[in-house]
Write a structure and sequence with these properties.
The complex is a heterodimer of chains A (103) and B (197). Chain A has 103 residues and is mainly alpha-helical. Chain A has four helices and three strands; from the N terminus they run αβααββα. In chain A, a hairpin with an 8-residue loop joins strand 2 (60-62) and strand 3. Chain B has two domains: 6-99, no CATH class; 108-193. The chains are: A mainly alpha (103), B alpha+beta (197). The interface between A and B is medium-sized, with 18 and 20 residues.
Chain lengths: 103, 197
């Protein structure tokens, strides 16, 4: 499994967050735009490629198909990746705040 | 008099100029001409409402299985995107302008992935041309070796020289600048991401 200290891209970070709830592709796009107040907009191509590689890494899984739309959900491995990413982000934030506040 | 509903235009864009091609299609759409089909250097538009749709070029490897392609096309259609044309590995995407742009303006990763696809497409094309060229040469050499006829043999070596030199020149003139341009785009995007910082 990944993760030593690789930063996640914003797209991957938001996709993983969105998939804490089972969701299909278009739902992920809308959820990501909503979470980031419209700042992060995933293109269909980016999302499609990211979903394929996340499935490959085992960070998300595909739910049994119901109709044509495919639903995805985060896996325990994916949650672990998010947890480590939060630690990394917290470190960045804390160091930045400490140093800039004491200026 | 009946208003013209269909417009056919010829334009040439090299693979490296897909951004210009997109700009051209979007300009037509703003003027009320919506792309409906694509061929070699050929674009067919139908009159519609001004600014109703926006367009984008994407790439799907033709070698990919129908299943993979179908799953991508289904995904696009779930996202409100229609594939209006296909040519070689290119696909032409259409979406209502009211639903916002296809992607973020400054998504360097997305751009890099895209340019990279175009770059490998152009390299694949060069390899295919070289393979075709090598095939023709082999046939001509065999013909020359196998024929006892002097004039046929001379004809073959003449053709060989002509075909060989001209296709190599064409390859250099046409493809080297394209591949170079794409390589520069890839390098610039890699710099933007900050790999070299």
């Amino acid at each position: 499994m990944n993760t030593t200290n690789n930063a996640l891209t914003e797209a991957v970070y938001y996709i993983l967050l969105a998939l804490v709830e089972p969701m299909h592709g278009y739902g992920i796009m809308q959820q990501t735009a909503a979470l980031s107040n419209g700042r992060v907009r995933l293109s269909a191509g980016t999302l499609y490629g990211a979903l394929a590689s996340l499935l490959d890494k085992g960070w998300i899984e595909q739910l049994p198909e119901d109709g044509r739309k495919k639903d995805y959900r985060i896996t325990p491995a994916g949650r672990e990746v998010l947890r480590l990413e939060l630690l990394r982000l917290a470190e960045l934030l804390e160091n930045g705040r400490n140093i800039l506040q004491n200026e | 008099m009946e208003k013209k509903e269909i417009k056919k235009l010829w334009r040439f864009y090299s693979v490296a100029d897909y951004e210009k091609e997109e700009a051209f299609l979007n300009e037509m759409a703003r003027a009320g001409w919506n792309l409906t089909a694509v061929g070699f250097c050929r674009y067919i538009f139908r009159r519609g409402n001004e600014g109703e749709f926006i367009y984008k070029l994407d790439m799907v490897e033709r070698s990919e299985s129908d299943e993979v392609k179908e799953s991508y096309f289904n995904f696009l259609s779930d996202c409100g995107i229609r594939v209006v044309g296909e040519f070689k590995d290119w696909i032409y995407l259409q979406k209502p302008a009211s639903e916002g742009p296809f992607d973020m303006k400054n998504d360097t990763y997305a751009k890099l992935r895209h340019v990279n696809k175009v770059y490998s497409f152009s390299l694949r094309t060069v390899c295919n041309l070289l393979r075709l060229f090598a095939g023709i040469m082999v046939v001509l050499i065999l013909l020359q070796l196998l024929s006892n006829n002097v004039s046929l043999s001379e004809f073959c070596s003449g053709v060989m020289l002509g075909v060989g030199v001209s296709s190599l020149i064409a390859l250099v003139i046409i493809w080297v600048p394209i591949v170079n341009k794409l390589r520069c785009q890839v390098n610039k995007l890699i710099d933007d991401i900050g790999v070299n910082l």
